[in-house]
């Protein structure tokens, strides 16, 4: 989940674009890319789809086209050859009171339970993955891969020892912070600025415990100070599960070239993000913002919205695009960031984390059915099949393997 619900709604109106992507692929290019895509292990490192598991009328086995709440479901995963990825336990940042921390603790555990319930309800279709080698085995069995991740460590503030419980239940990727500072770390986007100048003492302890358990650490959403702390203290590589290039668009959520090179030297990976607000400056008028707030309120609010209301939301946002036009990120913008990162650190340190169901998607790539366009673009750039395979899953799984092997050695 990239931003708070209102900002999320803005990006998810992409099914009816006002802008057009200039990049185009021939039928032959897409056919070739689709054929390769089906043979590759295709993983996305940041799927916010579990946010929909609490909606009574959401069925992951059914297709939910033209719905502002959904970009990932089983039929569209099959069409786009998405084998799975890291399914996020996202928790919004509260006011940091004791009551808020308890609510966040309960929310995280509930979302974990909902992911496990989805797996239990669809054992022939989805399977929990625990090791780096599990993904290929699950794909070979004809199932979709579910690694569990946590976006924002706030559910652990009330009781950091819960990390071991999450790990036992399948957690394999952890980020410390989200949109605002918390007790563990500084956020890249807190308007108050840094509080800890990186990780707090509790944050350092949390990262150390994650390393001990073999959980991969995710720097996305955290400040540059957190990046620097992770670089200094971690004995294994880390990743950015959904981030972009600061040299292309100077946003605090994006990573500068010097740190990109430091990440690569550490063996880490940055997963290219497709959230429009981090790809370019999306101009929004005050009137548009006010209209979005009214639309969300009329439909019951983000957390309580049904899938049926999500379809109404998509239509309402399309009307707002006509009434209050704004700039939208396109596939060209995504490829500009993606290409820059490839140029700076090479194909062994870049992957894919589109931020589906959390605000991701651009004009020309609205949901998972469009994923072969990325492969077609990589083929057009002249990358080998082995390099493309690493981008789609090999790189992030290498980091996981290193984290798990290090933890196993320390436990002996």
From TrEMBL:
<keyword id="KW-0732">Signal</keyword>
<dbReference type="InterPro" id="IPR008257">
    <property type="entry name" value="Pept_M19"/>
</dbReference>
<dbReference type="InterPro" id="IPR032466">
    <property type="entry name" value="Metal_Hydrolase"/>
</dbReference>
<dbReference type="Pfam" id="PF01244">
    <property type="entry name" value="Peptidase_M19"/>
</dbReference>
<protein>
    <submittedName>
        <fullName>Dipeptidase</fullName>
    </submittedName>
</protein>
<feature type="signal peptide">
    <location>
        <begin position="1"/>
        <end position="22"/>
    </location>
</feature>
């Amino acid at each position: 989940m990239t931003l708070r619900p209102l900002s999320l709604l803005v990006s998810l109106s992409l099914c009816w674009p006002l802008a057009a992507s200039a990049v185009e692929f021939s039928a032959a290019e897409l056919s070739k890319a689709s054929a390769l895509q089906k043979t590759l292990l295709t993983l996305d490192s940041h799927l916010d789809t579990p946010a929909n598991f609490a909606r009574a009328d959401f069925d992951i086995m059914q297709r939910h086209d033209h719905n502002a709440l959904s970009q990932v479901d089983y039929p569209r995963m099959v069409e786009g050859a998405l084998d799975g990825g890291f399914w996020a336990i996202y928790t919004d940042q509260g006011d940091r009171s004791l009551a808020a921390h308890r609510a966040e603790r309960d929310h995280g555990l509930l979302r974990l339970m909902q992911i496990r319930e989805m797996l239990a309800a669809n054992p022939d279709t989805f399977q929990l993955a625990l090791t780096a080698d599990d993904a290929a085995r699950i794909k070979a069995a004809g199932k979709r891969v579910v690694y569990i991740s946590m976006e924002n460590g706030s559910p652990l503030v009330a009781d950091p020892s819960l990390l071991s419980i999450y790990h036992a239940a399948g957690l394999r990727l952890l980020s410390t912070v989200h949109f605002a500072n918390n007790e563990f770390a500084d956020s890249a986007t807190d308007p108050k600025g840094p509080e800890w100048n990186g990780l707090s003492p509790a944050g350092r302890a949390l990262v150390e415990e994650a390393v001990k358990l073999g959980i991969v650490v995710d720097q996305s959403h955290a400040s540059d100070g957190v990046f620097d702390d992770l670089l200094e203290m971690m004995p294994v590589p880390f990743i950015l599960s959904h981030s972009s290039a600061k040299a292309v668009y100077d946003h605090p959520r994006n990573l500068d070239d010097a740190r990109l090179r430091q990440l690569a030297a550490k063996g880490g990976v940055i997963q290219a993000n497709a959230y429009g607000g981090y790809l370019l400056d999306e101009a929004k008028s005050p009137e548009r913002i006010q209209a979005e707030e009214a639309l969300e309120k009329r439909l019951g609010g983000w957390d309580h919205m049904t899938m049926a209301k999500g379809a109404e939301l998509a239509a309402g946002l399309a009307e707002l695009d006509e009434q209050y036009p704004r700039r939208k990120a396109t596939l060209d913008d995504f490829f500009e960031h993606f290409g820059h990162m490839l140029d700076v650190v090479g194909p062994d340190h870049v992957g894919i984390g589109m931020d589906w169901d959390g605000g991701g998607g651009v004009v020309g790539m609205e949901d998972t059915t469009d994923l072969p366009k990325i492969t077609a673009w990589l083929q057009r750039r002249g990358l080998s099949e082995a390099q493309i395979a690493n981008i789609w899953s090999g790189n992030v799984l290498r980091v996981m393997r290193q984290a798990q092997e290090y933890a196993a050695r320390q436990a002996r």
